[in-house]
Amino acid sequence: MTLLFALLILGSALQAGLSAFLLLEVWASVKARLPPVAGHSEVAHCSHPTTAILMPAHNEAAGIARGVRSALAELGPADRLLVIADNCSDNTAAVARELGAEVVERSDAQRRGKGFALDFGLRQLGDHPPAVVLVVDADCELAPGSLAVLARRAVDSGRPQQALDLMLQPEGVTALRARVSEFAWRVKNQVRPLGAKRIGLPCQLMGTGMAFPWSSLEEISLATASIVEDMQLGVELALRGTPVAFCPEARVTSEFPVAGEDASAQRRRWEHGHLGIITQTVPSMLIAALRRSDYRLLGLCLDLAVPPLAFFAMAQLLWFVLVLAIALIAGVWAPALLSAASIALLTLALLAAWQRWGRDLIAAGELLRLPVYMIAKIPMYLAFWTGRQTAWVRARRD
């Protein structure tokens, strides 16, 4: 009974700690101001370090034009845009070349995924390395002035920089589930990094809009089959003493997949990958942070340890039912009280995020329908244990 009590207390305390950290990030963001996009004035009045944009592209012929044009508009005289046409079966390479991009083609049926494409592109830059490497996905549009501000901050700080990565629903898509997905994305990529920045903590890499000083990539291999290669890279950089800084003045935007199966596959890849990082990487990262007394590494570790929000909410509710049942049977109430406090902290964090950043997406009356959205995701979370997604899959947007 003593061991059981200790385990129940530990489980409830862990959840309460993560809920409190999430509330801290959200509360800090509530007091922050989202700065405007840098704009072309940044380019017009200030020079920037030489930059190469790497744009990995797998079968993106139908939608790559917008991304290439926005990237080309940002280039200075010494900058480059390199499109990596990776294992393409369409005319992605031809479309990018016609638009004016430099293109390399890669074919390797065994080593598939964005990490391998980026590693291939990086090796093409080795003879004449730029000061900064900026990664932009082929389906993303780079906002004016973003390259310049990212490049300067990367060189001045010696740290990788992460632009604000926003994913929007396509025009005409108004279903509640779609708007909830957009809000969840906003919380993860805007609200929490903005709060972390305000309290002096680093942020996660988001997969696109990532700027790296060349020196930070020289000893790191990007060639990985991980379905969340960006998270893995952010952890490795933080362990090496160069955690990622959030740069919300720079922006990249893209659209959610429309097709049902593709949208589900994309969500499954993101969420299974995140849960995998929590189980495989966070424990050793926590030990390293405590051993070094590194508060920035500890902050990133806690940020990574917060699961996807729908999963976190459902897990807490199930845990509360368990500890409440045990309390009613055995009279051990401390774990149930801690669990209830954790749920209250999580609820407060989500309401604060919605109040400050989400009312344009979700009406107050629609909040009561959110449990239906969470229940619909149960099969995806069960699949994490029964048939976890481990392969990278491109989600169609065309």
Folded structure, characterized:
The chain is α/β, with parallel strands linked by helices. The protein is built from 16 helices and eight strands. The chain has an eight-stranded mixed β-sheet with strand order 3-2-1-4-7-6-8-5, with helices on both faces. It is globular, with a radius of gyration of 22 Å. The termini are far apart.
Mean pLDDT across all residues, rounded? 89
What fraction strand? 5-15%
Order of helices and strands: HHEHEHEHEEHEHEHHEHHHHHHH
- Give the oligomeric state of the chains in this entry, treating copies of one chain as homo and distinct chains as hetero: single chain
Using only CA atoms, what is the Rg?
A: 22 Å
The main sheet orders its strands as: 3-2-1-4-7-6-8-5
Q: Report the structural category.
A: alpha/beta
